[in-house]
Automatic annotation (TrEMBL), chain A:
<dbReference type="Pfam" id="PF03966">
    <property type="entry name" value="Trm112p"/>
</dbReference>
<protein>
    <recommendedName>
        <fullName>Trm112p-domain-containing protein</fullName>
    </recommendedName>
</protein>
<comment type="similarity">
    <text>Belongs to the TRM112 family.</text>
</comment>
<dbReference type="InterPro" id="IPR005651">
    <property type="entry name" value="Trm112-like"/>
</dbReference>
<dbReference type="GO" id="GO:0030488">
    <property type="term" value="P:tRNA methylation"/>
</dbReference>
<dbReference type="InterPro" id="IPR039127">
    <property type="entry name" value="Trm112"/>
</dbReference>
<dbReference type="GO" id="GO:0046982">
    <property type="term" value="F:protein heterodimerization activity"/>
</dbReference>
<dbReference type="GO" id="GO:0070476">
    <property type="term" value="P:rRNA (guanine-N7)-methylation"/>
</dbReference>
UniProtKB/TrEMBL annotation, chain B:
<dbReference type="GO" id="GO:0000049">
    <property type="term" value="F:tRNA binding"/>
</dbReference>
<dbReference type="GO" id="GO:0005634">
    <property type="term" value="C:nucleus"/>
</dbReference>
<dbReference type="InterPro" id="IPR029063">
    <property type="entry name" value="SAM-dependent_MTases_sf"/>
</dbReference>
<dbReference type="GO" id="GO:0030488">
    <property type="term" value="P:tRNA methylation"/>
</dbReference>
<dbReference type="InterPro" id="IPR051422">
    <property type="entry name" value="AlkB_tRNA_MeTrf/Diox"/>
</dbReference>
<dbReference type="GO" id="GO:0005737">
    <property type="term" value="C:cytoplasm"/>
</dbReference>
<dbReference type="Pfam" id="PF08241">
    <property type="entry name" value="Methyltransf_11"/>
</dbReference>
<dbReference type="GO" id="GO:0106335">
    <property type="term" value="F:tRNA (5-carboxymethyluridine(34)-5-O)-methyltransferase activity"/>
</dbReference>
<keyword id="KW-0808">Transferase</keyword>
């Protein structure tokens, strides 16, 4: 699972609604794999408004991945920044471990690169 | 040749979908996947027309046949309820996770588009079908679009259905002879558009019939 995907995920357990805690999900005991992917600068620039930047920074820091603390003023012309962004959101895969909600402590397992986001009946 | 039969099961909607949809897809995943490879033209056209940098979700992505139609300048994430189908997607290097279409794990408005192809007919009450469409509209941004395909009651292809029976069990025969029944709600002409209109907050850009299915493309307002 890519970090781009993780940036879109929030805890969806019923009654877990505190926006400051249900997002982003915190990684726990993860295995990380870098898999090469063809970069596309226009795609990356257009992803920026889709990404929650502070959640991405928090997550990258948790995983000890270097990330610029703030977005450059003109990201489209900052090739160094775009390359870093590409490595982080498109090439960094979480293959094993779990994602934990800081609000309700629900743990979503990741196995062989697949996150299981199903809930138990009482959580829906 | 086994024929579809009317659904007269007296069990809860969730149990029906568990037994007659989820469990069946896990059993037939490989054979199902082997029969699903060619993208349908309306869906391919929709994906190819998206602007560069679009981020999308395929809800009920099956074997991921639409996740690979266009790669590089757009990005799609798949979800499916069947872990066996999600594993097939992963083996093809598609981005995919296990989730329920009634309750998606995505934040509001995070996608430019969402598609759900031949999925919503597996929900066994109108309220659940509406909830599934509501979830698609919830995860796309204002101005984003949603594309839905569902089986038509009025199919003119190899499958024929009784026009008075919308809730049916349709057999799937594996090559080894094992037969599984899948639950379907067959949509009448106009029924899918009505679901979107009743939910509101969107306008229908295109609606039509293609490949034994009714489809709608709606834009979130």
């Amino acid at each position: 699972m890519r970090l781009l995907t993780h940036n879109m995920l929030k805890c969806h357990v019923k009654n877990c609604t505190d926006p400051d805690k249900q997002y982003p999900l915190r990684f726990k005991d993860v295995q990380i794999e870098q898999i090469e992917y063809e970069p596309n600068e226009e795609f990356l620039v257009r992803m920026l408004p889709r990404i929650d930047w502070s959640a991405l920074v928090k997550t990258a820091k948790d995983l000890n991945i270097g990330i610029p603390g703030s977005m450059p003023e003109d990201p489209a012309s900052d090739q160094d920044f775009l390359q870093k962004l590409h490595t982080i959101i498109m090439e960094t895969h979480i293959t094993e471990g779990s994602m934990v909600c800081d609000g309700c402590s629900h743990e979503y397992k990741i196995t062989k690169g697949i996150a299981n986001m199903l809930l138990a009946e009482h959580e829906i | 040749m086994r024929e579809p039969v009317a659904d007269t099961l007296e069990i809860s909607s969730a149990a029906k979908e568990e037994q007659y949809v989820h469990a069946v897809y896990n059993e037939i995943a490989t054979h199902f996947s082997d029969t699903r490879f060619k993208p349908w033209p309306v869906i391919e056209r929709y994906l190819l027309a998206l602007p560069t940098g679009s981020l999308g979700a395929d809800i009920g992505c099956g074997n991921g046949k639409y996740l690979g139609v266009r790669t590089g300048d757009i990005f799609m994430m798949g979800t499916d309820r069947s872990s066996s189908l999600v594993e097939i997607c992963r083996s093809r290097n598609h981005e995919c996770l296990i989730s329920d279409g009634l309750d998606l794990p995505y934040r509001n408005g995070c996608f430019d588009f969402a598609i759900s192809i031949a999925v919503i007919h597996h929900f066994s009450t109108k309220e659940r079908r509406m909830d599934a469409v509501r979830e698609l509209l919830r995860i796309v941004r204002t101005g984003g679009t949603v594309l839905v395909f569902v089986w038509a009651l009025e199919q003119k292809g190899r499958r024929k259905f009784d026009e008075n029976t919308q809730d049916v069990l349709v057999p799937w025969a594996k090559p080894n002879g094992d037969v599984y029944q899948r639950y379907y709600h067959l949509f009448r002409d106009g029924e899918l558009s009505s679901l979107f209109s009743e939910i509101g907050g969107c306008e229908i850009e295109e609606a039509g019939y293609d490949r034994d299915n009714w489809f709608v493309i709606a834009r979130k307002l």
